[in-house]
Design a protein that fits this description.
mainly alpha
């Protein structure tokens, strides 16, 4: 269940990150003419001006310490051992005897006798007898009290 939830969260995050609505808004803002200033409504007071905030001082960071140059020692590898030459034995040329001639087989033409007419008898079945299923009434369920009834896989009740 947790994997399904995390997968859904990742899909939603990718969907939000993959949206490109900012370009459309930027193009719309560039091509839309500026709106005329609204006429002041005599019944509403003018909006108060916002107070100016003091400038934030620029933060200065200490210089990054210089990293010492790391020298990697030159490693010398042992020479590669020579691989011994392997000689593959040659396969001798063998002449095979010619294939024996297959004798021509003539298949005699056979005419089959005509198929006899088969008469399938028509059979009528007797009607199915009606089966009466007797109505069965069950006795009422006995009342089982739910006090001190042990439940499976639960701890026993505490002793009094």
């Amino acid at each position: 269940m947790a994997s399904n939830a995390s997968l859904l969260a990742m899909i939603m995050a990718y969907t939000l990150l993959a949206g490109h609505t900012c370009h459309g808004a930027r193009n719309l803002a560039d091509t839309t003419p500026a709106a005329a200033p609204a006429a002041s409504v005599p019944s509403l007071p003018a909006a108060p001006t916002l107070p100016t905030l003091p400038p934030v001082p620029a933060a200065t960071l200490p210089p990054v310490p210089a990293m010492p140059a790391v020298t990697v020692p030159q490693a010398t590898l042992p020479p590669m051992p020579s691989v011994p030459a392997v000689t593959v034995p040659t396969v001798p040329q063998v002449t095979l005897p010619p294939m024996p001639a297959v004798p021509a087989v003539t298949v005699p033409t056979v005419t089959l006798p005509p198929m006899p007419n088969i008469v399938v008898p028509t059979v009528t079945l007797p009607p199915m007898p009606s089966i009466v299923v007797p109505k069965v009434t069950l006795p009422p369920m006995p009342f089982i009290p739910n006090v001190n009834v042990p439940m499976p896989f639960l701890a026993p009740p505490p002793s009094a």
